[in-house]
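Appendix C reproduces, verbatim, an entry submitted by the partner laboratory led by Prof. M.T., so that reviewers can inspect both the input and the predicted structure.
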Amino acid sequence: MTRLPDGFAVQVDRRVKKLGSGSALLGGSPTRLLRLAPAAQSMLDDGRLQVRDAASADLARALLDATVAHPRPAGGPSYRDVTVVIPVRDNAAGVQRLVMALRGLRVIVVDDGSAEPLTHSVFDGALCEIEILRHPTSRGPSAARNTGLAWSHTEFVAFLDADVLPRRGWMEALLGHFCDPTVALVAPRIVALHADDGVVSRYEAVRSALDLGEREAPVVPYGPVSYVPSAAIVCRRSEVVDIGGFDEGLRAGEDVDLCWRLLESGSRLRYEPVALVAHEHRTDLRQWLARRSFYGGSAAPLAQRHPDNIAPVVIPLFSLLAWASLATGSAAGALAGTVFAGMYARKVSKTVGSTGVTAPDAAALAARGLGYGAVQLSTAACRHYWPAAVAGAVVSKRCRRAVAAAAVIDAVHGWTTRRRLLDEGGKPIGPVGYMALKRLDDLAYGAGLWAGVIRQRTVAPLRPDIKR
């Protein structure tokens, strides 16, 4: 039974544009045009819809799947239906701090071959039911999570890493989403556990690889949230068991792989930033760069398993041609870029023309699309393709200008959109410090990516997805 229950509500995202007096909705991720029948229009009250019967349930599901609306569930399962699984290796202080905060929950701690085995004495005074399992030798975090999954018998399992600390109300905010019977996994927003004056710490506060931002979203490839990190997630146990749990063969990216396999099985996943879990970020520069490179190394194995989900750039052909022409820095390139931009705008106008959208609004949509294309290309040039970009800049003055422009666009866009994510009490990082750390971040990630490409003998994670 996958029907949404009565009382479940959805709210149209505030960034979705209403066209033709409500006859169509434009938005979501990727951006799409959703035409509404008159009956569907009458069900939406100021963008909100509550499920009362089969018709409203079908419309609510369509709005959710089109990513133009977000769920507003009424209630949810109990925390008594949840087992918390904590994989840990050589971090007794971290796991003790975490377990002490998990009051009233059933907890399975999986000691993955720690040099000094964990004992129950570490958790004296904890107000939860604790079971300790041990791997004699380390088998990796995926294997530790799978061991805990096999030993849990509740309907839901929460996976928490030993270096996190949930904030009040996190579990309740996540469990509500399981009112939707198709939801298999929900993740909180991960913020910094400690705020200090170090430049890496200040950068992590706004650009952590674990912090996916302040906006709720479905988890879908190429969306604002394309995966969620396994540092903190709650899962429907049966769905994770059915797909075989975490892939123990992956050194990195096992959480991305789990998300995408769940999506491929037909499940739905949600990101809920109202729920907060704090994480002890790496702030030592060398360790931080090594971790970024480690993350980059996961791209090639993931591309081999999920070739349709990992393109560094997803861009319409005319947008690509427009920016590629302008990047030549020549008069002919400027002319060609203007022509291609016009062709892109014409295609957008034709797509939305039947909904009654005005010409100025269509032009604004086209401009926004072109702007997003510029950001994508700039980010990819500085992150995924930087070895090729540097090589081109060495031999070509025009290429140097294009790469410099890409670096500025990427840094300015990142700084203006991410600085608001700074947690309360944190010291802000300035634009110069942000730009310097962003370049180091990209260099480390890209180096790991290219090392993985060479190691796996595949160019799949470098292949763009060009929409015609």
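Residues 431-456 form the longest helix (26 residues). Additional entries are available on request from the coordinating office.
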